[in-house]
Amino acid sequence: MTEQNATPETATTEATEQKIDGRTKRALDTAIVKKQVSQESYRAVLEGRIDLKAAKDLGRNAGPSGPAVRVDKNDRSRDCLCGCGNRTRGGRFAPGHDQRMVTLAKAHVRGEADLTDEQMEYVEASGKVDRARLQVEKEEQKRQEAAAKKAEAQRRKEGRKAEAKRRNAEK
Ligand SMILES: [Zn+2]
Known about the structure:
The chain folds into 2 domains: about 10-75, no CATH class; about 95-170. About 60% of the residues lie in helices and about 0% in strands. It has 8 helices and 2 strands. The chain has helices at about 10-15, 20-35, 40-45, 50-60, 70-75, 100-110, 115-125, 130-170; strands at about 60-65, 65. It has a two-stranded antiparallel ribbon with strand order 1-2. Helix 2 runs antiparallel to helix 3 (about 40-45), helix 3 (about 40-45) runs antiparallel to helix 4 and helix 6 packs across helix 8. It binds zinc ion. Zinc ion binds next to loops.
């Protein structure tokens, strides 16, 4: 992993044939420590491709060949924690995918899914696993109520049938 603002020593050791004078070199070192110039600009100044003022004008996030921001962001991105396979923009999730963890936690509560250690840690810390438990309980309750209603309706239907049969027999 390379950092945008790594210590300048790594760059200076290999730049033994400096094309700049000592004063500029010290000013350049100060500039990178203060994060006024980017690592790429730093090297460019050392190599005499641009001067210190140009480097400062480019700022800390850009070098002579363009902005370095994009590279930085890619470095921080990772696979989305929900397991969808998308890369994130630097956080744990692709946009909106943290909500998918409730669904995943529900599957876990029902014993239908195995969560990774990191996913487990997340759903516990965020309270999503508690939410998932409540939702699964409610859903189970609803399912049982619906089953009970259906059974009750069936009993009544059979009761009416038996009643009709009895009346027919009486005629
Ligand atoms: Zn995802």
